[in-house]
Amino acid sequence: MGTMFRIVLYSDHSEQAHSAIRAAFNRVAQLDRELSDYKPDSELNRVCLVAIGHDTVISDDLYFVLQSAQHLAEQTNGAFDVSIGPVVRLWRRARQTKQMPDPSALSAAMQLVGYRHIHLGERTLRLDMQGMQLDLGAIAKGYAADEALRLLRGFGFAEALVAASGDISVGDAPPQKSGWEIGADSFKAPKDHFTRTLTLHNQSVSTSGDTEQYVEIEGLRYSHIVDPKTGIGLRYRSSVTVIANKGIDSDSLATAASVIAEQQGTSRALALIDRFGAKGVITAERDGRVTEGETKGSLP
Ligand code: AMP
Ligand code: MG
To answer: Atom 14 (ligand 1): residue with closest C-alpha?
Structure first.
């Protein structure tokens, strides 16, 4: 999935702990083979080639993640859209070449975007158009963190943390602690300084933003998160941190809220997070003015 996974757990039994960790990493590797769009032969990439026009049976993991993605796409009127793949690939190249995507290539890619062209049946997937490319980069890491954590708990190691860069899922609190202390960064923070510390147990936290992944072309910044309405990388700087019960939700909601914040402003983005029963904080900059907002009720 183009990232590193890290596992931390507390145990008095080093040997059992290591075999549990191995099993958890194996599960992550399996999900990588199923859900990654970086791997040419992942299930996701193979199925995009064969599911055009006919219902194709897919794995339980892929089905579960796509169901959740489609629900969020409907709830955000397509601000979150995993069919954005062809456009994301053009922006990935733009980050390497520091050149804007070719406008005709971009409009051709945009023809292939639209969550309504994704059809889920009973354990099946069908796509409407040849060339469609699904990209689970905004949701699969969170799900993988959940799954690794679930496995560790199954082995008897509930005091555990799984981190996939900006997506972190935690289990029970470490011994004698009320929770895992997690620093939540925003672009406003000086490097290596965390804006706030969250204390979490049995929850997930994700941060989306352009602090690391963006390209600057002719003095303008473009994020790796794309507005599916325009096909353009998000222009305004923002960091969105979401705390939810599951990583699959914190991950996808943080990305979705980033798009909504740019399209409709931060209060609409916070309302989305709230509607999903999650909590969040958004820092955004527009025309040199930095604003910060958070959902109702205190953050943990
Ligand atoms: P995250 O780092 O979780 O915010 O996810 C960002 C990644 O999600 C990007 O690198 C793309 O692979 C993908 N992506 C970009 N824009 C969107 C979007 N509007 N909806 C869903 N996925 C997106
Ligand atoms: Mg995300």
So the answer is: 225
* Other beta carbons less than 10 A from residue 258's beta carbon: 29
Counting ligand 1 atoms within 8 A of each CB, the residue from 42, 224, 249, 252 with the most, and so the one to mutate, is 224
Radius of gyration of the chain (CA): 19
Q: How far apart are CA 132 and CA 83, in angstroms?
A: 7
Q: Where are the beta strands (DSSP E) in the chain?
A: 5-9, 56-57, 118-120, 124-127, 160-164, 167-170, 180-184, 196-200, 203-209, 214-217, 220-223, 226-227, 232-233, 238-244, 279-286, 289-294
How many A from CA of 47 to the centre of ligand 2? Answer: 22
pLDDT-derived band at 276, boundaries 50, 70, 90: very high
218-231 pLDDT, tens per residue?
A: 999 999 999 999 99
Nearest to 273 by CA among 227, 206, 213, 211: 206
Question: How far is 123 from 201, CA to CA, in rounded Å?
Answer: 33
Burial of 13: CB neighbours in 10 Å, binned 0-12, 13-18, 19+: exposed
pTM over 0.90: yes
Name the residue among 223, 219, 228 with its Cα closest to residue 240. Answer: 223
pLDDT category, 277, cuts 50, 70, 90?
very high
Residue 195 binned pLDDT confidence (cut-offs 50, 70, 90): confident
* Cβ of 211 less than 6 Å from ligand 1: no
Q: Which atom of ligand 1 is nearest to the CA of 73?
A: 20
Q: Phi/psi at 9 (nearest 5 deg)?
A: -150, 160
Specify whether the CB–CB gap between 244 and 253 falls below 8 A. yes
Contact 200, 235 (CB under 8 A): no
Max CA pair span of the chain: 60
